[in-house]
Hints:
By secondary structure, chain A is α+β, with helices and mostly antiparallel strands.
Amino acid sequence: xxxxxxxxxxxxPLEDTVPDPVPRRKRLSDGRRRAIEVAALLLLIPAxxxxxxxxxxxxxxxxxxxxxxxxxxxxxxxxxGHVRLRLLGRDTTGSTTRAATPSGAVTLKLVVVARPxxxxxxxxxxxxxxxxxxxxxxxxxxxxxxxxxxxxxxxTDGQVTVTAQVxxxxxxxxxxxxxxxxxxxxxxxxxxxxxxxxH
Amino acid sequence: xxxxxxxxxxxxxxGLMAAAMWLYTFKPHLEDKAQHPLMSRGRLGAVVGNRDFSxxxxxxxxxSAITKPDALAKPTVMRSLGIFLIVQAQIKSNKxxxxxxxxxxxxxxxxxxxxxxxxxxxxxxxxxQPMLWGPAQYVFEIPKDRLAGARLVIGxxxxxxxxxxxxNVDLGLSGAKGARLAAHPAASYELRT
Lengths: 199, 193
């Protein structure tokens, strides 16, 4: 039987089933080992929390609802993507609504001039989403409609009539907002650009 | 002595692992509970609201058949093996355009019924706007013995999260009233179109 001196060096030093024939001292004292363990824990726990935080942050970006609001002064022109928009006027006479609409609602009409800046703008002009809002942050749906016989053209102004049902007492105070709607809203990462037309 | 210690440590380890696995079985239930919408409760005639929307149930009818008028032909009569429960409500949004969803009728026994689903009965899937009360009508078809104590639950059509809200309205059908209506429903209810 041959004696392999290396056999003992690869054994688990904590294994005590066979007395260690090679006298050796502990590489680390108990106190020092515990200090290293505590330091490792103190590093690992914040690292774990930070990793989870970053992961959650990345996931939350897919659900982000941040908006970058640009306030357009009265009569001013603003660009939303590839479309230039201008609020031409508003009809606040509050025409009587249809029977199917909620009680207390009046119809607000806003006329917007939209000019596609390029070929992409021609596609985008019908995708612009409209809403109206008051100072308290309430938001009402609004729908834009344009003459179906007039096709949008690059560099040419087109008229869009935006209609919304709003409470009668707020018809003079609500403001129009335009934002990318439909497929347009899924294009760019980061905050959604919003145009708010002052009046 | 060392063997005894090791055996005790092994038993303790196995016990702790079993306890951890047992506790882990609660995780899905806790996560499920965390996803439950926040519930506002109220009763017939009262405004029940949350930060997203408000509901006011104005009327409840019980009938064994529903008649749908037709301007050009004979009215369509739909009969039920159980009963029809017709709920009239007013809904408004409190913040931004809102669509109702997950509408159901909760019974005293814990059963849940969705709207009747009959093609001839239109769903109230309107969009509701802030500060404007809009009408809603829900028709449920349920067995007679499930009427007493029924409650209407209305939620949001949007994707649910931990802060989603629902309203739970007591339709005032508990006790004698529920039993009487279940035993003697109206012969027919005419739908308003």
